[in-house]
Amino acid sequence: MIRRQTRSRPVPALLPQQLADVRAQTLALAGGLSGEDCALQSMPDASPVKWHLAHTTWFFEVFVLESHEPGFRPFDPAFRVLFNSYYEGIGNKHPRPERGMISRPDLDRVLAYRREVDERVQALVRDPARLLRVAPLLTLGMHHEQQHQELILTDLKDLLSRNPARPAYRDGWPLTPVAPEPLRWLSFEGGIRPIGHEGRGFAFDNEQPRHDVLLRPFELASRPISHGDVIDFIDDDGYRRPELWLSAGWDSVLQGGWQAPLHWERGADGWSTFTLRGLCPVSRDVPAVHLSYFEADAIARWMGARLPSEAEWEVACGEEPVEGNLLESGIYHPCASRKPARPGRPVQMFGDVWEWTRSDYGAYPGFRTAEGAVGEYNGKFMCGQYVLRGGSCATAASHLRATYRNFFPPQARWQFSGARVARDA
Amino acid sequence: MIRRQTRSRPVPALLPQQLADVRAQTLALAGGLSGEDCALQSMPDASPVKWHLAHTTWFFEVFVLESHEPGFRPFDPAFRVLFNSYYEGIGNKHPRPERGMISRPDLDRVLAYRREVDERVQALVRDPARLLRVAPLLTLGMHHEQQHQELILTDLKDLLSRNPARPAYRDGWPLTPVAPEPLRWLSFEGGIRPIGHEGRGFAFDNEQPRHDVLLRPFELASRPISHGDVIDFIDDDGYRRPELWLSAGWDSVLQGGWQAPLHWERGADGWSTFTLRGLCPVSRDVPAVHLSYFEADAIARWMGARLPSEAEWEVACGEEPVEGNLLESGIYHPCASRKPARPGRPVQMFGDVWEWTRSDYGAYPGFRTAEGAVGEYNGKFMCGQYVLRGGSCATAASHLRATYRNFFPPQARWQFSGARVARDA
Amino acid sequence: MIRRQTRSRPVPALLPQQLADVRAQTLALAGGLSGEDCALQSMPDASPVKWHLAHTTWFFEVFVLESHEPGFRPFDPAFRVLFNSYYEGIGNKHPRPERGMISRPDLDRVLAYRREVDERVQALVRDPARLLRVAPLLTLGMHHEQQHQELILTDLKDLLSRNPARPAYRDGWPLTPVAPEPLRWLSFEGGIRPIGHEGRGFAFDNEQPRHDVLLRPFELASRPISHGDVIDFIDDDGYRRPELWLSAGWDSVLQGGWQAPLHWERGADGWSTFTLRGLCPVSRDVPAVHLSYFEADAIARWMGARLPSEAEWEVACGEEPVEGNLLESGIYHPCASRKPARPGRPVQMFGDVWEWTRSDYGAYPGFRTAEGAVGEYNGKFMCGQYVLRGGSCATAASHLRATYRNFFPPQARWQFSGARVARDA
Amino acid sequence: MIRRQTRSRPVPALLPQQLADVRAQTLALAGGLSGEDCALQSMPDASPVKWHLAHTTWFFEVFVLESHEPGFRPFDPAFRVLFNSYYEGIGNKHPRPERGMISRPDLDRVLAYRREVDERVQALVRDPARLLRVAPLLTLGMHHEQQHQELILTDLKDLLSRNPARPAYRDGWPLTPVAPEPLRWLSFEGGIRPIGHEGRGFAFDNEQPRHDVLLRPFELASRPISHGDVIDFIDDDGYRRPELWLSAGWDSVLQGGWQAPLHWERGADGWSTFTLRGLCPVSRDVPAVHLSYFEADAIARWMGARLPSEAEWEVACGEEPVEGNLLESGIYHPCASRKPARPGRPVQMFGDVWEWTRSDYGAYPGFRTAEGAVGEYNGKFMCGQYVLRGGSCATAASHLRATYRNFFPPQARWQFSGARVARDA
Q1: A103 and D34 in contact by Cβ < 8 A?
Q2: Fewer beta carbons below 10 Å: N end or C end of chain D?
């Protein structure tokens, strides 16, 4: 299990090494993959690994080097358009659904791009004055890169899952099973409570400003929904009973032919599921993963419960340390809690699976976007998505915090997404 | 201008007459329309007028007569499926996109269906004990019917707009123009404030329970966004600047080729717009209508403002009487305010145009759906939609109240939808 | 059974009465239909009955009156665009998939349009010189109208079939069943044989010029494929065996979920099928109808046969009189042959069902299109369609001849289309 | 320029070496491509190069080794499904649109697959008796492989064209321009003429049986339509005049936004076009390429001509030797004729561009498909496609003959397809 270092004010002098570490982590994730593994795009929502490797580099080239490096010259002028994701302020961009049309530059050249930009950034920030100036952008770029680390794993998993051979990303299975954690209900008081980020340490604009919310007393499940819960839901005809679903969710069930979470396959011996370590039997004790918001909502309703609001989640999380089954544990799949719960406290708030909340992804009161192209980072996506909290087995520990807001459309299932239920007190 | 009667506890003895009035109002709206006008369906989101006439009758037949009429026999057994809208609990339903495939029953038979069900309902409730038992369903059915009265107008308008001749639903133009209301900013204090419905009078489940919200001080525009504002937005290239739009909104602009609100046509003499009285010049002074949430949001951003939350809207509305340019005024199009504003108070909170808020349509804390099929009325749609407040020129006065929550997807433009801007204090 | 009058050189003096008869026949077909029946469009390939009534009138207004009537003024200037089908040479046209958006003009006004144009055309041709000039256009217009008579029935049938009540166009069933005609193989010699139209009488440009073809000896079935053949094909898993199908046909089977001909429904008592007289049991002895080219081809292959070429069909037809179960018989559905076969001769070459041939619809050697907009009648559709021969129960007798070439895309099933098999000698 | 060896009866003893040569040619075409170049799929109609490399090997493994190798064991059991193209008789197949989802097996493993199957086939046929038995399958497999050699180039070209950098497959440009060949009309007599394959040498089933056709006198252009002709067509508004187009072709123009042949880009200096050697200026003198049937037909009509039938083409070709700008010339793009025309004879009948004919792709009289799965090779595609003749700059010389029938749907443009016009005498 991974425990994140203590939260503290960023120290610029440490940034170059932190940056190098993050960049190295990305490369390590791509290690062992062929150029072919890295070039293919499984669907418009996902991107090729090579694109992630290049786009995270583009971020430093365009936002750091282009403005701050004396005598800046681009590594390749075509990359400015080719690896722009969605920044309208930067100008043209290559269409997202066509990211899988790019065999050239090949992986080797993208790796060379990474190396050169890394060297030039590191050279740039040897000057302490320049380091101070670009420190906020370096920090943003590191967190941006950590988001793409997670996407590298989720997008690759989606690609490999479409191969009839169900090939593994990493071999072996690092853990032995443990006994399940029974679901207990934990009580929390209502009242005016602050949520959102403030003060020291990096946070995205969408976590700010810290502000008061008014909560009613509520209860939260001690652990996430488990695969056992999902099996019981399936066995109780959950995927065939419209009264359990939101109307749009029921449409997704019918149109997508959903009968189980994404990647589940029913065989003679019961359910198995595709993982980054190949096809594995479904274990009842593991937090349920690859659930859409619709499924999380329906399972909660079937349990006589509901999803928590993001404020409830954050308040319940409190000062819980950022530790758990995170990216650095190298498991790349959720697993049952290996740590005894403390009295009155939930387990697995961080890591394993992102937890859907009932909160649509909107602006906090007083929200302001940043100036310039980086202002496109979050605000313009505040429509039609739901907030997830807590990180997953593919999230870097140093990327997370209790106030962190992830967001996806309600039908999305290819992320490591699960849920934890709540109810009114 | 229409002023709604005072809000009061429903008196069952008055219900039969109230019901007869509502049913007559629906028929009056269909008056002058041919069987052909009533049979066509312009798009999957809209329904034929004939379907609305039948479905509102179906509601009384299935929810009232079927359970409470001794010796109940259906008017036509096929109608149970044919005119079910979305109640999974009732069983099968005819697919929504195929409502325009039904030439038989024809309009005359649907009108006969209305007459028979009306007579049987009235006969049923002559017994006071039965009236007491079905009073809640009658009340719900009346409000349900009033919702469909509005849809009759909006769906018919969408159909007529697709006719190259741009035919009018009603002839003539009943009003002379008036001087515009300048936009003023009105201030409201923050704090804990109650919203939602409680106590006497009918309200939908989605307006309940009444509960406290925590507001920060805010300002609200004294009047809705006007067509003049929209023209200025267009002239400032508003439909061509992605930085003004939500990302999903910009996708809608590109895919839909949006260059102005729905129904606007640019001619040599400037803009004109299709109305239920035919094609008319666009008047700057009229509240802007046929805006999607995306357009409302973009125009607000361009004005340096934002949309209000639904709580802000409701608090600002306060005890404002339900009066304005509503269905009963018979204009069927928004018009400039004809009433001087009171100091510190907004105008046109009710009527003219539904006002988009920034609030996604979700459950209030403690929300409970009703038991049985009528429980499908609201809750299952709480995903991916935004709340509109205040009613429009097509909303019946007795249908509205300050707590009323309408909702549509963010790209919807065929309703009488506009907006009013807000900003942080 | 209907027998067509003898083929002869058109006599201009008879044209006005012939025209009046054809126009009256069209009205008779629409008799008993409501405005609603006539206004709805079931799919982009089909048109509302009202549109057919108007477009056939438009043909005379635009091609006859507009050029030949002194002081011509249009009945309604908007109709020139609204009721243009596909004549690019005439200018704009209303999009075909939106023909079902038109509630106004209503049916009454379209009927008034018919009356006025009819009167003005008849007035025009009282002058013998003018009659001579417009005679070719009148003749074309009559045949054009007869094509739309058939489409009125097929498009209406498609619409009514989508109504869950399966309503009948005409009540009752006019015929008692007869004993089946066994399939016999008839032999035909090879050699150089002329096909195509020449000489007296009207024919479309696509039937010309008459030209020689080289045939090999062949055999033709004495009767069309019957419903009994189709039932045997179904029972032999014909709809589940890809080896019986063209590749594109198999795609249609999978995508369309085809398990039987269009309109067939399997019940506890066996197959029934929707007809213009409502839902009826499938009779084995009736020529199979609502077959796509793909189904006709697959059934032929399953029978160890093939479809004939159009030249084979025409040569085998020879001087067969144009008589059979045609529009005038008023049955509107195929039926078993009621006439004993002559030795060595096929039955039901005309009427009952159009017979798919293996010939793609292309230009005859030396084909020339007419000058002007009427030149768009046929030639521009010579791509991706297959030729059908012999007319159906919805084809007017005076419209047919042995050289007549009908054509539809291979997946089309909503016409009265069947087939007759052939094989190499 | 490449000249094919004289046509002769296949000599089994030569087959092993011929097979080795063909297999080596395929590998040579893939030479210089990265795993990424070979793994991507540009559209459902095209396949990744790696898939072509594997599928052509699968053909020998499944049709030759599986039935004839003692103790056969598959290289990889999963490949039987993964690399089946469309043979329903073999069982399941991986869906065509998902061929681009396969990063594993990677290119190296597919190359190992090729080597092993090659070795095992060569070992098998060292036994002369076995060689005799499998000779027909080896021959079919070689021709099958040559078809995929052409597809390797056309599918790769389509992929590279979607890369904004327009990367070249091969560098440099091997030819200097030559003077143009003026278009002359060559006359051919009518009468009964034999077409189709007979006798010695390999031919596909769709070229058989040889049979008589009846032709009318006709004229054929001495050379294909040139880029100069296309430029004149464009300058004469050819892409904006519906009267020049088939109706379905005009739909393609509007839906596809066609303004020029595929791959053309208009710049300040005129037209350039993407080739396998990168972006190049369009030369007027080169045979026009990347034309759909619709464009070929429209340009012919604009020239006052028409496309030839495939019988006319074959008769005009006569005993013309199979030589020209073919695959072996290594140019991979059409070029102007470098050889003086002989009197009365056309140039460039073979090579440069496939020539669309007006003939739909159907069965010759007496056509019989082969038994078993190889019988799916041709017959089941005989619907909705048009015949092309003469081979292209991507066709192997030994693969071609005058009777060879290629076929594609009328809207296809990604092949090396052009046309040659004809007219009635």
Answers
A1: yes
A2: C
| Backbone phi, psi, residue D387, to 5° | -85, 135
**Structure confidence by residue, pLDDT tens digits, A143-184:** 999 999 999 999 999 999 999 999 999 997 766 666 667 899
Inter-chain residue contact D36 with A100, CB threshold 8 Å: no
Kindly list the partner chains of chain D, i.e. chains with 3 or more CB atom pairs below 8 Å: A, C
Beta-carbon separation of A101 and D163 below 8 A: yes
Mean pLDDT of C27-44: 97
- Residues from D in contact with C at Cβ < 8 Å: 86, 88-89, 192, 211-214, 216, 242-243, 245-250, 293-294, 306, 358, 360, 362-363, 365-366, 376, 380-384, 410, 424
Asked whether the predicted pLDDT for residue C198 surpasses 80, the reply is yes
Q: Mean pLDDT in chain A?
A: 93
Tokens of A201: 């340490």
Q: Do C36 and B39 touch (CB under 8 A)?
A: yes
Q: Which of B211, B246, B363 sits opposite A382 (nearest CB)?
A: B246
Report yes or no on chains D and C touching (3+ CB pairs under 8 A).
Answer: yes
Token pair listed for A48: 């090729």
Contact D144, D56 (CB under 8 A): yes
In this structure, the number of other CB atoms found within 10 A of the CB of residue B24 comes to 11
Contact criterion met (CB below 8 Å) for D347 and D323: no
Positive or negative torsion for Cα C221, C224, C228, C232: positive
CA geometry: angle A241, A244, A249, nearest 5 deg = 90
pLDDT grade, residue D177 (50/70/90)? low
ipTM: 0.93
Residue of A82, A101, A156 to mutate, testing the D interface (most D Cβ within 10 Å of its Cβ): A101
Q: Kindly list the structural domains of chain A, giving each domain's residue range(s) and its CATH number in brackets, ordered by start.
A: 12-161 (1.20.120), 185-424 (3.90.1580.10)
Cis preceding linkage at D177, omega within 30: no
Contacts of D112 (CB under 8 A, 6+ apart): none
The whole-angstrom distance between B247's CA and the closest CA on chain A is 5
Chain C contacts of B159, Cβ < 8 Å? 101, 103
Q: Judge whether residue B101 has pLDDT over 80.
A: yes
On the 0-12 / 13-18 / 19+ scale of CB atoms within 10 A, D55 is buried
Going by pLDDT thresholds of 50, 70 and 90, the confidence category of residue D182 is: confident
Residue A5 in this model has a pLDDT that exceeds 50: no
Q: Do A192 and B211 touch (CB under 8 A)?
A: no
What average pLDDT does the segment C185-191 reach?
A: 97
Q: pTM for the whole thing? A: 0.94
In the predicted model, is pLDDT for residue B145 greater than 80? Answer: yes
Give CA–CA dist D286/D336, Å, rounded. Answer: 5
> B36 in helix, strand or coil?
helix
Q: What is the pLDDT of residue B5?
A: 47
pLDDT of residue D23: 98
Q: How far is C88 from chain B (nearest CA, A)?
A: 18
Q: Is B257 exposed, middle or buried (0-12, 13-18, 19+ CB in 10 A)?
A: exposed
Closest C-chain CA to B106: C36
How far is the first Cα of chain D from the last one, in angstroms, to the nearest whole number?
32
State pLDDT tens for residues B211-230: 999 999 999 999 999 999 99
